[in-house]
Amino acid sequence: MSRRGGPAEVNAGSMADIAFLLLIFFLVTTTIETDAGLDRMLPPIEPPENDVVIKQKNIFEVSINKNGQLLVEDGLIEIKDLRERAIGFLDNGGDGTCTYCKGQKNAESSDNPTKAIISLKNDRETKYSTYITVQNELVGAYNDLRNREAQRLFNRDFTDMESEYLNPETDASRKDDLKEKVKRIQDLFPQKLSEAETSSTN
Amino acid sequence: MSKFAKKKDAGLPAVNTASLPDIVFMLLFFFMTVTVMKDSSLKVENTLPNASEIKKLEKKDRVIYIYVGAPTSQYSSQFGNEPKIQLNDKFADPSSVGDYILQERAKKAQELQNVLTTALKVDKDANMGLISDIKQELRKVNALKVNYTTYDGDAFNNLQ
């Protein structure tokens, strides 16, 4: 370093202060969050053109009243028993066409998982938290059954495969492979969860 | 005088802080990249319910948010204690949800307009009546994909 001649050095001592200032600003404004929740599809508003007649035994009716009590197929049950009941209904396989079902094959309950429909009704005064709990249990029932089939076919949980499929960081070739598998499991237990309009208007 | 004469003792040598700016910059860049600026301030109570069977909402640019809950203490004198809908920064009626969705949808890029999700961030103490009204409005504008945003947890905690 020459002592003479060269340009004077810029004093960088305050750089740390400036950087600190910026750092603190970003620290304060940062919110690190990824939202998560229950994905649902709403039914389209225009009614289907040809009304399909659905057999009563293929419909699993769940109603929640304003006190958060649960009525399933005309009987009062606790929310914690709902998942088991829903699994029993979906997995029933009443007409014997379902080769992978492990249910009781009760002729009075659903024919086939592809025909089974869960209908959820709620009152206008039902609390949102109760509704979410019920939704969660019903989605959970589907997930339990799908996991069981995915374990049998691919030795892997369905929920695990699905989240990898939906993750944007998964690469394309892996996605194509997963897409097929996810689709196959979804077809075994299609999620048919109908939400009727609230009871006071119906 | 020897060349290696001990310098006069000046106590502890100062810690070299030349790399301090580098460290701070590193932190700065980290926070700069992960920062998401808050776009609207919440005017409603928003304690979400818990659920366990949840899916992550990927890609924030494809999400439209609707907040529902009782107005916070700051606004409750003016708007009451009944749960209300918040769209952007304003309280709104269920009837204006449809317009809001259409407006937000028009702001998004063309190729995203058909894959939008509506995230319902609803306080756990809200009633389903209001939610049903919102759902009805969403169906009218054909925004059928919804996500009931929740915290990860045991769903039975909601019932207490």
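qc> Residues 56-195 of chain A form one domain.
qc> done
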